[in-house]
Structures are given as C-alpha cells and as structure tokens.
C-alpha cells in the first residue's frame, strides 16, 4: 500500500468516525464509546506492557487515581474536571514513577513486576474501601447538570463520544511518535533483550520509568472520562482485578506492541461482551470474561501476535499467491 | 482482657494459617514445575469447593466425605490441564505461559458465574458449632481439623519430595530440565504428575474448608492474592517456607484486625509482600534464589 493510499484511508476513517453520531442510535453510540474507551486504556497500557515489555496488572490503579482525583476536586473545591484530569494524570504519573522506581531499581521484572502492580492495586482497593472521606465502599456520585463543557457534563452521549475519541487520537499520536522516535526504539530494545540494550548504552531504569510514567499519566486521563460518563465511581468496580485484566486483554488479542492492536482488540471484543451481557443481565457482571479468557488462551497458544499478526500473515499469503500463481491451492484442486 | 484477645487472635491466626498453607503448598509445588506462578490456582480451588458442595448436597454427606472424589478429581484435572494447555507452550516466554493461565482463570471463574450464578453456597456440617475451650481461647473444631490435616499433608509432601524416587525425579526436573532428561528421567511425565499433585492439594483443601467457608465464583481471587504473598514470602518453591509464611501472614492479619482501623488489616500481607519483593526477593526463609 502506498503512503498516499494510507493517508486517504485514514482520512476516510476519520471522516466516518467524526460523522458517526449523526446516523447512530444512542445505544450504538454507547457501545462505540465503550470501544473507544477500552481502546484508549489498552493503548495506554500498551506503551508499558507492549512496547517496553513490562506487563502490568496495576493499570486499574492509575485509572482509579484519575477518576478519584478529578471527582474529589470537583466535589470538594468545584475544580473543573479538565484541570482535575491533568491533576489526576500527574498524580498517577508520580505513583507510576514510585512503583516503577521501587521495582526496576532492584531489577524486578516479568511475573514479579506483575505481582508488585497487583499488590499495589489491592492495597489501594482496601484503603479506598475503608476511607469514608473518599466515599468508602459506597462510592461517589457526580451530580448531573445541564450541558456544561467546562464541567464535562453533557446530556447527549455524542458529546462524550467526541471527548473519548479525542483522547484516543492523542494516545495514538503518542504511540505513533514512539514507534518512530529514538526513545521508542530504546523501549523496544529493552523488551527484546534487556542485557543487550544495556550493553548498547540504554539507561534501563530511565527508559522503563519514562514508559511507566507516560502510561500511568495517560491511563488516569481515561479515569476522569470514566467518572463523568458513568457519573459514579467506587472501589469495587474500578480497583478490581478483572478491570486490570480487561485493560491488558484488548492489547494482547488485538496485537501487543502495535499501534492499532488495542483498537482492533476492543473493536472485536467489546461487541461480544455487550452481547453476552445482554444475554445474562446485570447480576452476572463479568460473565463476558469467559469469552475474553478463551480468546486470550487461543491467541497466546496459536497467534501470539494477535489479530494484527493474523492480518499480516493473510496479506503475506495473498501477496505470495499473486506472485507465484502456480502454488495457489485453489488451482491445484481439480 | 486485652491479652486474652491477643491470645485468641494468635490462635485464630494459626488455624487460618493452616488453611492458607494447604492452598499455598500446592501453589509452590506447581511453581517448581513451571517456573511461573499459576494464576489459575485460585480458580482450581473454586472448582474443588463447588465439587465438594455438590457432592455433599447430592449424597447428603459431611463435606469431609467428598475428599474421596474431589482429591482424585482435582489431580486428574491438573494432569489434563498440564498435558493439553501448559506442556505445548512450555518452551515459550514465561509471560506467555502466565497469560495462558490468566485466560484459564477467567474462563473457570466466569464459567462458574454463568453456570452457578453469583449466589453464595454454604454447607451444613455437624461439626460447625462444636469447639474446644482452653481458658479464654476458643478453637472451632472444623478449623482445628483443617489445621492438623494441612500440617500432615505438608509434611507428607515434603517427605515425599525429599526421600522418595518420584520426589528426587521431580526435584531433578525442576532444577535442571536438560540434565534430568540426560539421566533418563521422563521430564514431561514427572512434571505432569507434580502439577497434578499441586492441584490435588486443593482437592483436600476444599473439603476441609467447606464447613467454614462459603463458595462463590470469585472466591479464588481472594485466596490467590494471599497465596501469591505467601509463596513469595516463603521463597518460591520452598515447602516449609510456604507453610511458615502462611502462619506468619494469617497471624499478622488476625492481630492486625485488633489494632488497625476499620477493616484495613488485609493490607498488611501486601505491604509485607512489597517489602520482601524489594529487599529480599528470595523470600524470608530462602536460601538465595537458584
């Protein structure tokens, strides 16, 4: 595909996404928002988990920091969520630096880093459940107002759609920049072979911390969006192991460490989740994870590069069959 | 009065530690085989608890009777999972193996949710309210039984690993796969048995726990987090370490519950865990890592 073709394709996709609310129902927009939301979170996770190869099951924590910070600032001090969003992001980035510094300084990686991030999330969950000043187990409600851009409050779902779409474009731009920049190449070098990267002069600690902080900061922005879209936050939905796993699964199923993998993963999985949920109803929160778990196992076992990997493979086969028509299986058949 | 409370907390902690150790000894055994932490261990426990529940309800027996079915059942389940899911990707990146087990845990947990609903299920046991009273300290009979049996099983497993031919083969396969193969050990078969044994421990744990605990589809998540803490504190793959760490964690929890505000005591194991991972990653009782 030429670069011109790619640009045209991107323009058409952009135009389609921008005009989508005009011809979709409220419910369809809701599903689209969920796709974009999880694509966003998973793209943020992908910077640390995919590009840098440091798997984290603690991104629910950064999400919750973003949601709680902006909500508390709004409820206590009347601060606009847009400012709260940046405050939450900064706080989450600092927390990411702290967790990352503790772990990476001692060379903790792989499954042990996973466990450290899980432990921090669990500590946060227990503390949040027991702190009445931030709502405790009963959570926090955000009062509903009329349309108010400054307070991130809209009557119409399509406005939220544009907010999350904007956030997604930002994280995709950051990721695309990482793919081309020196810093990004260093992150990938760390993932592929830490020792070799270090031998070539990559400062492991600095670049791992950079990835952690960036990933945490962006994830927290999504938390603020979540709080205002759902208008209710509590520890058991946000600081929950399933939430942490879900964030990672979209990337892995779509194609870990790729620009569009998380988006593809969310676009395939979220509609499946919606269907399963419609079948089982609200008492069975999480039942869609049967499908997610099964797909995760299949992908890990048979297609570690995810859906993107499958597409690449199919395209290769197609090119091969065009170049070498004699080997086409369809012609071999009588 | 306070000292009596503390004493009671220590005893309750010890008993709870017995339950933890039964779960964690199995987890540490499977770690020895796979070199990765089994994320689905809690869900195997959940499966064993449901199996115990349905056995005891179906045959109108005491939960303990379910051991005759649940133990071999879980062993077989573990062997099959190892053979069909873990063995084919054993040579791959450990994180890949971990993700496969994460997938398995999601399927089991939420499959149970779809099949059995989120309702809690508990069993009646004749022993539930019988207890020993030693001065001010009260010991519930089901917890005492769980405690004694779990210690016996841990010691039996330790002895088996240490002094039997199969144990020697398991240890050899865990410490150096290639060398073990050269010595004529069928590493795949040995690992399959060891994995089955690790999961089989849960087939004993569940019937011992069911008189006191109820079962819900996500019960595994609660125990697995504690179990991760315990096996890391104990030194991964270290049996006696896992047992001691179980007691340590459980006692810390029950004493913490006396002094810490609200229900914040559960953070203690995780704080301890982070500290140990950072400063003594080979575990509290560890010789240095392999």
List keywords for this structure.
heterodimer, A: 334 residues, mainly alpha, two-stranded antiparallel ribbon, 76% helix, B: 290 residues, ABC transporter involved in vitamin B12 uptake, BtuC, two-stranded antiparallel sheet, 2 strands
Note the beta-strand portion of chain A: under 5%
Most strands sheet of chain A: 2 strands, antiparallel
What is the averaged pLDDT score of chain B?
86
Main sheet strand line-up of chain A? 1-2
What is the percentage of strand-forming residues of chain B? Answer: under 5%
Provide a brief overview of the structure:
By secondary structure, chain A is mainly α. Chain A has 15 helices and 2 strands.
What's the structural blueprint in terms of helices and strands?
The complex is a heterodimer of chains A (334) and B (290).
Chain A lengths: L2 H21 L2 H26 L7 H19 L3 H25 L5 H20 L9 E2 L15 H24 L1 H11 L1 H6 L4 H27 L1 E2 L1 H4 L2 H15 L5 H20 L8 H14 L3 H18 L5 H4 L2
Antiparallel strand pairs in A: 1-2
Chain B lengths: L1 H33 L6 H18 L8 H20 L7 H23 L14 E4 L2 E4 H23 L1 H11 L1 H6 L4 H23 L9 H16 L4 H21 L7 H13 L11
Antiparallel strand pairs in B: 1-2
Describe the protein's architecture and organization.
The complex is a heterodimer of chains A (334) and B (290). Chain A is built from 15 helices and two strands. By secondary structure, chain A is mainly alpha-helical. In chain A, strands 1-2 form a two-stranded antiparallel sheet. The longest helix of chain A has 27 residues, at 204-230. The radius of gyration of chain A is 21 Å and the shape is globular. Chain B has a single domain, classed as ABC transporter involved in vitamin B12 uptake, BtuC. Chain B has helices spanning 2-34, 41-58, 67-86, 94-116, 141-163, 165-175, 177-182, 187-209, 219-234, 239-259, 267-279, and strands at residues 131-134, 137-140. In chain B, strands 1-2 form a two-stranded antiparallel ribbon. The longest helix of chain B has 33 residues, at 2-34. The radius of gyration of chain B is 19 Å and the shape is globular.
